[in-house]
Amino acid sequence: MTGTLAGLRRAGMDDRGALEALQRAAYAANARIIGRTPIPMEWDYGAVLRDWEVWLADQDGVLAGALILDLRPDDLYIENLSVAPAAQGSGLGNRLLAAAEIRAGQLGRDTLRLLTNALLVRNVDWYARKGFAIERIDDDGSRRITHMVRRL
After folding, report:
1. Which residues pair with 35 in a beta bridge?
2. How far apart are the C-alpha atoms of 27 and 82, rounded to whole Å?
3. What are the helix (H) ranges across 13-135?
4. pLDDT (0 to 100) of residue 96
5. Distance between CA 92 and CA 82 in Å, rounded?
6. What percent of the chain is predicted at pLDDT more than 90?
7. For position 3, what pLDDT does the model report?
8. Helix, strand or coil for residue 131?
9. What is the value of pTM for the model shown?
10. Nearest-5° angle of CA 47, CA 67, CA 50?
11. 99 touches 8 (CB < 8 A)
12. Dihedral sign (CA 101, 151, 135, 118)
């Protein structure tokens, strides 16, 4: 799918540098909280742009947010929802999440899933307020990962 989704635009390979910069900025605080590199900072963004749907939000000509989606057989997986520090608190995260819901409907999926680090309590609480429930918490010895689900 190309074009727009709820005011977002579909990313292309030419957005890679801006997307990587957004992710570094958006995840800097999380890295301090969890004491290690967040998983999205370890990704190859060439592969991300090739293999997943990436939707971008621009504000005043600057990349302010990203929504990265993976269509799986039984759900739409939110691989990533990130907002630039300058845009946090502006409602952009809500807009990105609403776009994921719209896209799930377009794709005939009635379930959204995602994960976040259990130490990111603010994220877990935000998703819970948006109707997500904790499915499970995995502890691999170096990370505690909270898996969350929302039925639409």
Report:
1. none
2. 8
3. 16-34, 45-51, 92-106, 121-129
4. 98
5. 9
6. 89
7. 78
8. coil
9. 0.94
10. 20
11. yes
12. positive
Amino acid present at 118 = A
- CA nearest neighbour of 91 among 43, 120, 119, 57: 57
Strand partners, 68: 54, 80
Residue 6 has pLDDT above 90, yes or no: no
Question: Is the distance from CB of 26 to CB of 16 less than 8 angstroms?
Answer: no
Q: What single letter denotes the amino acid at residue 47?
A: A
CA dist., res. 86 & res. 144, Å (int) = 28
Domains of the chain: 4-151 (3.40.630.30)
Count the Cβ atoms, other than its own, within 10 Å of residue 1. Answer: 10
* pLDDT given for residue 1 in this prediction: 53
Let me know: does 78 contact 68? Beta carbons within 8 Å.
yes
Q: Is 6 helix (H, G, I), strand (E, B) or coil?
A: coil
pLDDT of residue 12: 97
Residue 101 has pLDDT above 90, yes or no: yes
Paired tokens of 34? 């969890």
Length in residues, the chain: 152
